Amino acid sequence: MAIRKINTGWQVDIWTDGRGSRRIRKTFKTKAEAARYERWVRAKVQSEPEWRPPKKDRRRLTDLVDRWLEVHGLQLKDGTRRAADMRTAAHAMGNPQAAGFTARQFTEYRARCLEDGLTPATLNRKLAYFRAMFRELERVGEWNRGNPLAQVRQFRVDETELAWLTRDEIAALWWALRQSSNPDALRVARLCLATGARWSEAEQLRGEQLFSDRVRYGRTKGARVRVVPISERLSRSLALHQRGRLFTSCYAAFRKAVDRAGLELPRGQCSHVLRHTFATHFMARGGSILVLQRILGHTDIRMTMRYAHFAPDHLREALHLNPLAPRRQFVDTRPQTRLSAKGNV
User: Considering 216, 221, 260, 294, which one is annotated as catalytic?
Assistant: First the structure.
């Protein structure tokens, strides 16, 4: 009710933009004065935006996650999984109101996760997900309170040692794959090793992506189409159908073959070892790091630089320029300073 009778007179009680917005209350001696003031306030609200401040944002952290999924996350391959991960984390933090969410709440949650056994790398991903969520919602006008996690630092994580196969290990793997009940496992592994493809990219290859001398990978992790040349012999062995998928799901068969071959690989690198092996041998044979980046489809050159030390000339100067190397004539290239007769410069 905008105007009501009270003991001291007539009170104007107005929400400028509905319940939860700015509230104005003022008392007048007469009802006419109160009515005039009410009309004046309503006119101000319509003509001057500052009289109509935004409503208090009462959304919870999970509400932001749901909105992020609607406006952006569904466009990502792993958007639904990311949203589920963030919802779980939000509930673990008590699902606070987003407007009051602070970096301290996240860091305390992160500390509890460390005690429960989660790895720093996993927690760095969670931090990256929430940062990206706030940044994207701000970009599309769904959030205007800044990024509460902008100043939170990631944990320092040691660089993972990348496993790769020698020629003898490749031969052992080929032998084990030939014993597999699923022949597609060998074909997919050969394609990965020849083109540096991820297992999922090769396993889901379709006939229309295969040409006489090249293979085209689409729907990749970096969302970029890339084309990699292949030998005619490999092309003939892969062209099983004209259309549709060329291979059945055969990852389980590949894992069993790795075990039969006696290969001990780091956790999480079972099939990815083929991609690492391609990159390692490519650089060891003198390949260009920029060409390798394009073949692997890395959007960031820093990902490709992990293989740079396999190049034949990598830091080769250390052999010739260290103090124990054979002596060469030393030339002092420092600028010489002339002194005056009095010894002043």
Answer: 221
Give the residues across from 216 on adjacent strands.
227
Selected catalytic residue, list 67, 82, 110, 275: 275
Does the annotation count 72 as an active-site position? no
List beta partners, residue 10: 5, 28
Q: What is the CATH number of domain 167-310?
A: 1.10.443.10
Q: How far apart are CA 214 and CA 111, in angstroms?
A: 49
Residue 139 designated active-site: no
Catalytic residue status for 275:
yes
The whole-angstrom separation of Cα 179 and Cα 182 is 9
Its pTM stands at 0.64
**198 in active site:** yes
Q: Structural domain boundaries of the chain?
A: 3-51, 61-139, 167-310
**Is residue 235 classed exposed, middle or buried when 0-12, 13-18 and 19+ CB atoms within 10 A define those classes?**
middle
**Catalytic one of 22, 42, 272, 294:** 272
Measured from the Cβ of residue 43, the count of other Cβ atoms closer than 10 Å reads 11
- 29 labelled catalytic: no
Give per-residue pLDDT as tens, 225-278: 899 999 888 888 876 566 788 899 999 999 999 999 999 888 888 999 999 999
Is 243 among the catalytic positions? Answer: no
